[in-house]
Amino acid sequence: MPRFAANLSMLYTELEFPDRFGAAAADGFEGVEFLFPYAFAPQLLAQRLQQHRLSQVLFNAPPGDWDAGERGTACLPGRETEFRDGIGLALGYAQALACPRVHVMAGLVPEGLDRADAHRTYVGNLRHAARLAGEQGVDIMIEPINARDMPGYFLSRQEAAHALVDEIGESNVRVQMDLYHCQIAEGDLAAKLRRFLPTGRVGHMQIAGVPERHEPDMGEVNYPYLFELIDQLGFDGWLGCEYRPVRGAVPGGTSQGLGWLRKWRGANKT
Protein backbone atom coordinates (compact mmCIF):
# COMPACT_ATOMS: atom_id res chain seq x y z
CA MET A 1 0.00 0.00 0.00
CA PRO A 2 1.45 3.40 -0.92
CA ARG A 3 2.77 5.53 1.92
CA PHE A 4 1.57 9.12 1.71
CA ALA A 5 3.54 12.08 3.08
CA ALA A 6 1.98 15.48 3.73
CA ASN A 7 3.69 18.40 2.02
CA LEU A 8 3.65 21.01 4.79
CA SER A 9 4.46 23.89 2.45
CA MET A 10 1.13 23.42 0.69
CA LEU A 11 -1.14 21.68 3.21
CA TYR A 12 -2.51 23.08 6.48
CA THR A 13 -1.53 26.61 5.50
CA GLU A 14 -4.08 28.12 7.89
CA LEU A 15 -1.60 27.16 10.63
CA GLU A 16 1.83 28.48 11.48
CA PHE A 17 4.43 26.19 9.94
CA PRO A 18 5.58 24.47 13.16
CA ASP A 19 1.95 23.62 13.98
CA ARG A 20 1.38 21.83 10.69
CA PHE A 21 3.31 18.77 11.91
CA GLY A 22 0.68 18.03 14.54
CA ALA A 23 -2.16 18.60 12.10
CA ALA A 24 -0.64 16.13 9.64
CA ALA A 25 -0.17 13.52 12.35
CA ALA A 26 -3.76 13.99 13.51
CA ASP A 27 -4.94 13.17 9.98
CA GLY A 28 -2.97 9.94 10.00
CA PHE A 29 0.10 10.95 8.03
CA GLU A 30 3.30 9.22 9.14
CA GLY A 31 5.66 11.16 6.90
CA VAL A 32 6.08 14.80 5.89
CA GLU A 33 7.95 16.76 3.25
CA PHE A 34 8.22 20.47 2.53
CA LEU A 35 10.02 22.86 0.22
CA PHE A 36 12.58 24.56 2.46
CA PRO A 37 13.39 24.28 6.18
CA TYR A 38 15.93 27.09 6.41
CA ALA A 39 13.75 29.70 8.12
CA PHE A 40 13.62 27.45 11.20
CA ALA A 41 16.27 26.01 13.47
CA PRO A 42 16.82 22.31 12.75
CA GLN A 43 16.39 21.52 16.44
CA LEU A 44 12.85 22.94 16.39
CA LEU A 45 11.86 20.89 13.36
CA ALA A 46 13.46 17.75 14.76
CA GLN A 47 11.51 18.25 17.99
CA ARG A 48 8.22 18.50 16.09
CA LEU A 49 9.00 15.36 14.13
CA GLN A 50 9.81 13.45 17.30
CA GLN A 51 6.82 14.83 19.19
CA HIS A 52 4.38 13.68 16.52
CA ARG A 53 6.22 10.50 15.53
CA LEU A 54 6.71 11.64 11.95
CA SER A 55 9.38 10.80 9.41
CA GLN A 56 10.94 13.60 7.39
CA VAL A 57 11.06 12.10 3.90
CA LEU A 58 12.21 14.98 1.67
CA PHE A 59 13.02 18.67 1.42
CA ASN A 60 14.79 20.89 -1.13
CA ALA A 61 18.33 22.21 -1.11
CA PRO A 62 18.60 26.03 -1.22
CA PRO A 63 17.28 27.24 -4.61
CA GLY A 64 19.05 30.60 -4.95
CA ASP A 65 16.88 33.69 -4.56
CA TRP A 66 13.42 32.11 -4.57
CA ASP A 67 11.56 35.39 -4.04
CA ALA A 68 13.35 36.88 -7.07
CA GLY A 69 12.21 33.95 -9.21
CA GLU A 70 15.22 31.66 -9.06
CA ARG A 71 14.45 27.95 -9.05
CA GLY A 72 17.80 26.38 -8.32
CA THR A 73 21.42 27.03 -9.23
CA ALA A 74 22.71 23.60 -10.23
CA CYS A 75 22.83 24.37 -13.97
CA LEU A 76 24.17 27.93 -13.67
CA PRO A 77 27.85 28.47 -14.55
CA GLY A 78 29.60 30.81 -12.14
CA ARG A 79 27.38 29.87 -9.17
CA GLU A 80 29.28 26.73 -8.18
CA THR A 81 30.54 28.04 -4.84
CA GLU A 82 27.04 29.15 -3.83
CA PHE A 83 25.67 25.79 -4.94
CA ARG A 84 28.20 23.85 -2.89
CA ASP A 85 27.60 25.99 0.18
CA GLY A 86 23.89 25.31 -0.19
CA ILE A 87 24.44 21.57 -0.37
CA GLY A 88 26.46 21.74 2.82
CA LEU A 89 23.63 23.59 4.56
CA ALA A 90 21.03 21.12 3.27
CA LEU A 91 23.01 18.12 4.43
CA GLY A 92 23.31 19.62 7.90
CA TYR A 93 19.52 19.82 8.06
CA ALA A 94 19.19 16.33 6.61
CA GLN A 95 21.35 14.96 9.39
CA ALA A 96 19.40 16.80 12.10
CA LEU A 97 16.04 15.67 10.69
CA ALA A 98 17.16 12.12 9.82
CA CYS A 99 15.99 12.84 6.28
CA PRO A 100 17.26 10.38 3.66
CA ARG A 101 16.53 12.51 0.56
CA VAL A 102 17.33 16.03 -0.61
CA HIS A 103 15.88 17.40 -3.83
CA VAL A 104 18.32 19.56 -5.79
CA MET A 105 16.54 22.00 -8.09
CA ALA A 106 18.25 22.40 -11.45
CA GLY A 107 17.40 26.03 -12.15
CA LEU A 108 16.11 28.08 -15.06
CA VAL A 109 18.35 28.23 -18.12
CA PRO A 110 19.08 31.95 -18.70
CA GLU A 111 18.50 33.41 -22.13
CA GLY A 112 21.75 33.32 -24.08
CA LEU A 113 23.34 30.53 -22.07
CA ASP A 114 24.50 27.65 -24.24
CA ARG A 115 22.55 24.54 -23.26
CA ALA A 116 25.74 22.50 -23.35
CA ASP A 117 27.31 24.78 -20.74
CA ALA A 118 24.27 24.44 -18.51
CA HIS A 119 24.37 20.66 -18.92
CA ARG A 120 28.08 20.42 -18.09
CA THR A 121 27.66 22.61 -15.00
CA TYR A 122 24.66 20.61 -13.84
CA VAL A 123 26.40 17.24 -14.14
CA GLY A 124 29.48 18.52 -12.29
CA ASN A 125 27.42 20.03 -9.48
CA LEU A 126 25.29 16.92 -9.06
CA ARG A 127 28.34 14.68 -8.86
CA HIS A 128 29.78 16.89 -6.14
CA ALA A 129 26.48 16.95 -4.23
CA ALA A 130 26.05 13.18 -4.52
CA ARG A 131 29.51 12.43 -3.19
CA LEU A 132 29.01 14.65 -0.16
CA ALA A 133 25.53 13.27 0.45
CA GLY A 134 26.74 9.71 0.11
CA GLU A 135 29.01 10.19 3.09
CA GLN A 136 25.93 10.41 5.32
CA GLY A 137 23.67 8.00 3.44
CA VAL A 138 21.51 10.65 1.76
CA ASP A 139 20.06 10.35 -1.75
CA ILE A 140 20.11 13.33 -4.11
CA MET A 141 16.85 13.70 -6.02
CA ILE A 142 16.38 15.30 -9.44
CA GLU A 143 12.87 16.19 -10.61
CA PRO A 144 11.48 16.96 -14.07
CA ILE A 145 9.16 20.00 -13.77
CA ASN A 146 6.63 20.95 -16.42
CA ALA A 147 7.27 24.01 -18.59
CA ARG A 148 3.78 25.43 -18.06
CA ASP A 149 4.34 25.97 -14.35
CA MET A 150 8.06 26.71 -14.60
CA PRO A 151 9.05 27.99 -18.06
CA GLY A 152 12.73 27.60 -18.83
CA TYR A 153 13.44 24.96 -16.20
CA PHE A 154 16.46 22.85 -17.13
CA LEU A 155 14.76 19.46 -16.73
CA SER A 156 11.21 18.64 -17.81
CA ARG A 157 10.97 15.03 -19.02
CA GLN A 158 11.33 11.66 -17.31
CA GLU A 159 13.55 10.10 -19.96
CA ALA A 160 15.99 13.01 -19.70
CA ALA A 161 16.15 12.63 -15.91
CA HIS A 162 16.98 8.94 -16.17
CA ALA A 163 19.63 9.65 -18.79
CA LEU A 164 21.18 12.19 -16.42
CA VAL A 165 21.25 9.65 -13.61
CA ASP A 166 23.24 7.38 -15.90
CA GLU A 167 25.60 10.17 -16.94
CA ILE A 168 26.21 11.47 -13.41
CA GLY A 169 27.12 7.93 -12.43
CA GLU A 170 26.58 8.17 -8.68
CA SER A 171 24.44 5.46 -7.10
CA ASN A 172 22.68 7.86 -4.74
CA VAL A 173 21.32 10.15 -7.48
CA ARG A 174 17.71 9.19 -8.13
CA VAL A 175 14.61 10.55 -9.84
CA GLN A 176 11.78 12.33 -8.08
CA MET A 177 8.77 11.39 -10.21
CA ASP A 178 5.99 13.94 -9.75
CA LEU A 179 2.90 12.62 -11.50
CA TYR A 180 1.35 16.10 -11.70
CA HIS A 181 4.32 17.45 -13.64
CA CYS A 182 4.61 14.28 -15.70
CA GLN A 183 0.96 14.39 -16.79
CA ILE A 184 1.26 18.01 -17.95
CA ALA A 185 4.61 17.57 -19.69
CA GLU A 186 4.17 14.11 -21.18
CA GLY A 187 1.01 12.25 -20.17
CA ASP A 188 0.77 8.46 -20.57
CA LEU A 189 1.33 8.03 -16.84
CA ALA A 190 0.68 4.31 -16.57
CA ALA A 191 3.18 3.57 -19.34
CA LYS A 192 5.74 5.85 -17.69
CA LEU A 193 5.29 4.05 -14.37
CA ARG A 194 5.67 0.65 -16.03
CA ARG A 195 8.81 1.83 -17.79
CA PHE A 196 10.61 3.65 -15.00
CA LEU A 197 9.62 2.15 -11.63
CA PRO A 198 11.23 -1.24 -12.39
CA THR A 199 14.59 0.49 -12.97
CA GLY A 200 14.92 1.19 -9.26
CA ARG A 201 16.00 4.74 -10.06
CA VAL A 202 12.79 6.39 -8.84
CA GLY A 203 13.42 7.31 -5.22
CA HIS A 204 10.39 9.47 -4.44
CA MET A 205 7.04 10.30 -5.99
CA GLN A 206 4.58 13.19 -5.67
CA ILE A 207 0.94 13.62 -6.58
CA ALA A 208 -1.65 16.34 -7.23
CA GLY A 209 -4.79 16.76 -9.27
CA VAL A 210 -4.39 17.97 -12.85
CA PRO A 211 -4.78 20.65 -14.11
CA GLU A 212 -5.48 22.85 -11.06
CA ARG A 213 -3.07 21.12 -8.63
CA HIS A 214 -5.81 20.48 -6.09
CA GLU A 215 -6.63 17.20 -4.32
CA PRO A 216 -5.81 14.03 -6.27
CA ASP A 217 -9.50 13.13 -6.70
CA MET A 218 -10.09 16.36 -8.64
CA GLY A 219 -9.24 16.56 -12.30
CA GLU A 220 -8.26 14.32 -15.17
CA VAL A 221 -5.98 11.73 -13.51
CA ASN A 222 -7.38 8.42 -12.24
CA TYR A 223 -5.21 8.15 -9.15
CA PRO A 224 -6.83 5.05 -7.59
CA TYR A 225 -5.87 3.15 -10.74
CA LEU A 226 -2.32 4.51 -10.56
CA PHE A 227 -2.01 3.72 -6.83
CA GLU A 228 -2.90 0.09 -7.60
CA LEU A 229 -0.37 0.03 -10.40
CA ILE A 230 2.35 1.54 -8.20
CA ASP A 231 1.67 -1.23 -5.67
CA GLN A 232 1.80 -3.90 -8.37
CA LEU A 233 5.14 -2.57 -9.57
CA GLY A 234 6.59 -2.90 -6.08
CA PHE A 235 7.43 0.73 -5.33
CA ASP A 236 8.05 0.95 -1.59
CA GLY A 237 8.87 4.67 -1.26
CA TRP A 238 6.75 7.64 -0.30
CA LEU A 239 4.15 9.57 -2.30
CA GLY A 240 4.31 13.23 -1.36
CA CYS A 241 0.96 15.04 -1.35
CA GLU A 242 2.19 18.23 -2.99
CA TYR A 243 -1.08 19.93 -3.84
CA ARG A 244 -3.02 23.07 -2.98
CA PRO A 245 -6.26 22.21 -1.16
CA VAL A 246 -9.27 23.50 -3.05
CA ARG A 247 -10.54 25.09 0.20
CA GLY A 248 -7.33 27.02 0.47
CA ALA A 249 -6.22 28.21 3.88
CA VAL A 250 -9.63 28.12 5.58
CA PRO A 251 -9.50 26.44 9.00
CA GLY A 252 -9.73 22.69 8.50
CA GLY A 253 -9.63 22.99 4.72
CA THR A 254 -6.86 20.45 4.22
CA SER A 255 -8.50 17.89 6.51
CA GLN A 256 -11.87 18.35 4.84
CA GLY A 257 -10.29 17.61 1.48
CA LEU A 258 -8.75 14.29 2.54
CA GLY A 259 -11.77 12.22 1.58
CA TRP A 260 -9.71 10.69 -1.22
CA LEU A 261 -7.17 9.41 1.31
CA ARG A 262 -9.72 8.14 3.81
CA LYS A 263 -11.51 6.29 0.99
CA TRP A 264 -8.26 4.71 -0.19
CA ARG A 265 -7.26 3.65 3.32
CA GLY A 266 -10.71 2.23 3.97
CA ALA A 267 -10.65 0.22 0.76
CA ASN A 268 -7.21 -1.19 1.52
CA LYS A 269 -7.47 -2.20 5.16
CA THR A 270 -6.00 -5.62 5.84
From TrEMBL:
* Record key words, sorted: Isomerase, Pyruvate
Active-site residues, Swiss-Prot/TrEMBL: E143, E242
Is Isomerase given among the entry's keywords? yes
Q: Name one GO molecular function term.
A: hydroxypyruvate isomerase activity
Q: Which GO terms describe its biological process?
A: glyoxylate metabolic process
- Does Zinc-finger appear among the keywords? no
> Gene3D superfamilies this protein is in?
Divalent-metal-dependent TIM barrel enzymes
Q: Which residues cross the membrane?
A: none
Q: Which Pfam family is one of those matched by this entry?
A: AP_endonuc_2
Q: Which family does it belong to?
A: Belongs to the hyi family.
**What is the protein named?**
Hydroxypyruvate isomerase family protein
